[in-house]
Amino acid sequence: MEQFLLFVANIFDVPVSELSPETQYNSIPQWDSIMQLRLVMEIESEYGISIPIDIVAELDTLQKFYDQIKGSQE
To answer: Which CATH code for domain 2-72?
Structure first.
């Protein structure tokens, strides 16, 4: 999880100390609908996975993104 939070901090351009698994969509100014799509694309590229478009709206915490990555890599 630490590496994932660092990865997200770089995308959001915030200190990693501002993020946690419980960080929610819209809880930081950078995480809006455009950034949600960028986050999906960056994760797909970095981790070599595909996130179905129909679940993107359900990924509203960093923990849910992390769980999606782990589930896709199994």
So the answer is: 1.10.1200.10
53 against 72, higher pLDDT: 53
Domain edges within the chain? 2-72
With tokens 């960093």, the residue in question is: 62
CA atoms within 13 A on the CB side of 47: 23
User: For residues 8 and 14, what is the distance between their CA atoms, to the nearest angstrom?
Assistant: 9
pLDDT of residue 74: 72
- Structure-block tokens of residue 4: 């994932």
Q: What span, in angstroms and rounded, lies between the C-alpha atoms of 36 and 60?
A: 9
Most distant CA atoms of the chain, gap in Å: 33
Grade residue 67 by pLDDT with cuts at 50, 70 and 90. Answer: very high
In the chain, alpha helices (H):
2-12, 33-47, 62-72
